[in-house]
Amino acid sequence: MNRQEIEAMLESNSDSYSEDYDDTDADPNWSSESEPDENIYERELLDNCNVTINTIGNNWNNDFSNGRLNSHIIFNPDVNTTGINPDIIETMSDASPIDFFYLFFDKEIIDMLVVETNRYANAKKNTAGLSRHARIRKWVDTNEQEIKLFFGIAMWMGMMKLPSIAHYWKNSILYSCNIPKFMSRNRFEIILSMLHISDNDKAPTNDRLYKIQILIDLLVEKFNSAVIPEESVCIDESMVPYLGRLSFRQYISNKRHRYGVKIFKLCTRDFYTSKYKIYAGKEATMGDSVSCKVVMELMEPYLDFGRTLYADNCYNSIDLAEK
């Protein structure tokens, strides 16, 4: 038999089968065991969707009819000021970069650093059993000017990177810089090890961020006073690289810096960070996922003002939509 004869035979068998077969008594819910898996999956998915719609449909309809989800909130109907605080525009039009640094890292924060650093250093200095040659025995209280100098050196180190802290005080021409003219290496290192902004005696046992939480709160307050978010805001996360020992250090394999501290940020259109939250471990509460809780905390000051929030699929969920 050639190819044409085989095809003709198959066609004739197919026609006779369809004419002779009667499915009037067939079970409409029956499906062949050889049915492709993807078809079964699609049907089950549609069934699940129908069940979900039937389950929550009435609730959503009630929400819309009651105005809960259909409130038509208009953003800024009174045309209040948004964006950069007008006082900053007026008073800092000719300001230098250091002026903007002190706009956020102001005297309030520096004074707290001075007080708590001295408190912690003196407590360590008075520790029983301290070695006679321990460097902390030579501790002298720091002050506002020295703390400013310390942070200036730290920022300079961030721009001029050398293999270690000790290299900034080497006499070699390869590593020469002006830092030794302003502060000795011993003094810099002891301030670095004693630096504090909170009282250790008041630290709760269940708060991993206690030592820096007050600094975070102060900075967020100053961020919000400097710039009032406009209509569109977004939430995303970033990773601060860190390889040291830390209980809430994260590992994310697909990031450029795989090890570090994860920070959730609420940002405005011009990439300004309006609010942020450091992730210190599992924080989900009863009935809420971590992502839902993060969004609600970051958006808390701006809820019900008609703003539009943009976020990726990591944050979008039914839980969040129902809030």
UniProtKB/TrEMBL annotation:
- Biased composition regions of type Acidic residues, renumbered to the chain: 17-26
Which residues constitute the signal peptide according to the record? none
Q: Which InterPro entries match?
A: PGBD
- What single Pfam family name could you report for this chain, choosing any that match? DDE_Tnp_1_7
Residue ranges of the PiggyBac transposable element-derived protein domain? 96-322
Question: Where does the source fall among the domains of life?
Answer: Eukaryota
The annotated region (Disordered) lies at 1-37
Q: What is this protein called?
A: PiggyBac transposable element-derived protein domain-containing protein
Q: Which organism is it from?
A: Macrosiphum euphorbiae
